[in-house]
Write a sequence for this structure.
């Protein structure tokens, strides 16, 4: 009966074991996972756009090859995550349509424009850095297919973070103009990167329940703090300034005090009013429509093969 099933589910979560697709799970747990995994998948796919913008303008053949590989990795992450979401009983097509119709979200960060080559460095260092801090704990998420997908994604993200760091390191030791370009990129990406962790804990609607279910392991503010502490030392090595005059070590807390991002701006961007929201969704819609014949051809080919093998 339902009581036994709930008890079994609770015991699996309490014992830090994995819930698998065939297991009974509360409907709200399934819904929360579909929401979060789909948002995550959409973020990977939409996230290809701001960086894709620089593939044809990368400053050397080597940089171009690296960036191409990185953007392809993001497509792969999207695919693993859509596949993980599909184990919960929803199709990839439904998810993509919900994204295009604005019924599902993707990360706020990808609604900001990439204005210079240094932005590719800042995205790698800060955005992928924030993604790693947020995603490493997800490798221990209670839902098996999501946790397992995150292991490979985190390995690839840490490589992405290093490539961004290396771009900024090179620019920072280049001409004064290159250094200024690197600093300008860090100035623009810092606060949006802090906002990626979501609203403050006091306004986070899902955190408490998601932490009870061990989908989330740490709160938004805990992870944001961890990210700030990590960046301070790295900024020192880069010889770039974090654009926060109030950033300082607090010995009592054993952590840095810092200025919070503008959460009003975050809410506006989430609602669709960021600098690039319309452009990002429009581009995604166009790609989906223009790819319809490829999907139809692949399905027809698979059907033909299936008949041939009978
Ligand atoms: N961008 C867009 N929406 C956001 C963001 C953000 N940065 N932060 C929070 N939200 C939304 C939430 O989705 C939620 O809206 P919903 O109820 O309509 O879904 C609302 O704001 C309230 O936030 P929370 O209650 O704190 O939501 P949640 O518990 O889901 O925590 C978080 C948000 C931390 C982003 C979580 O969903 C998560 O860890 N997701 C997986 C990681 C991820 O998606 N990363 C994508 C960017 S990284 C990358 O792809 C390189």
């Amino acid at each position: 009966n339902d009581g036994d099933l709930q008890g079994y589910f609770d015991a699996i979560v309490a014992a830090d074991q994995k819930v698998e697709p065939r297991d009974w799970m509360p409907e709200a747990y399934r819904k929360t996972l579909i929401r979060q995994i789909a948002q995550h998948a959409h973020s990977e796919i939409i996230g290809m756009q701001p960086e894709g913008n620089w593939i044809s303008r990368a400053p050397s053949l080597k940089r171009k090859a690296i960036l191409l590989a990185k953007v392809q990795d993001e497509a792969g992450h999207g695919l693993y995550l859509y596949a993980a979401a599909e184990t919960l009983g929803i199709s990839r097509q439904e998810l993509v349509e919900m994204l295009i119709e604005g019924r599902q979200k993707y990360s706020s960060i990808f609604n900001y424009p990439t204005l210079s080559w240094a932005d590719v460095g800042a995205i790698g260092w800060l955005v992928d850095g924030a993604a790693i801090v947020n995603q490493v704990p997800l490798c221990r998420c209670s839902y098996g297919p999501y946790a397992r997908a995150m292991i490979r994604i985190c390995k690839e993200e840490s490589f992405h973070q290093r490539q961004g760091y290396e771009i900024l390191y090179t620019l920072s030791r280049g001409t004064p103009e290159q250094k200024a370009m690197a600093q300008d990129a860090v100035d623009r990406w810092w606060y949006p990167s802090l906002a990626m962790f979501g609203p403050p804990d006091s306004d986070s609607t899902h955190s408490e329940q998601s932490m009870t279910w061990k989908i989330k392991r740490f709160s938004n503010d805990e992870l944001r703090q961890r990210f700030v502490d990590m960046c301070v030392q790295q900024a020192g090595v880069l010889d770039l300034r974090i654009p926060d005059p109030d950033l300082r070590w607090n010995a009592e807390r054993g952590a840095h005090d810092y200025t919070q991002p503008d959460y009003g701006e975050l809410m506006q961007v989430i609602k669709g009013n960021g600098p690039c929201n319309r452009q990002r969704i429009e581009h995604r819609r166009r790609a989906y429509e223009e790819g319809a014949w490829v999907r139809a051809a692949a399905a027809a080919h698979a059907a033909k093969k299936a008949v041939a093998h009978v």
Summary: The pocket of acetyl coenzyme *A is lined by residues 35-36, 39-40, 43-44, 47, 105, 107-108, 131, 134-135, 195-199, 204-207, 210, 216, 220, 270 (CB under 6 Å). The first strand starts at residue 248 and ends at 250. The radius of gyration is 21 Å.
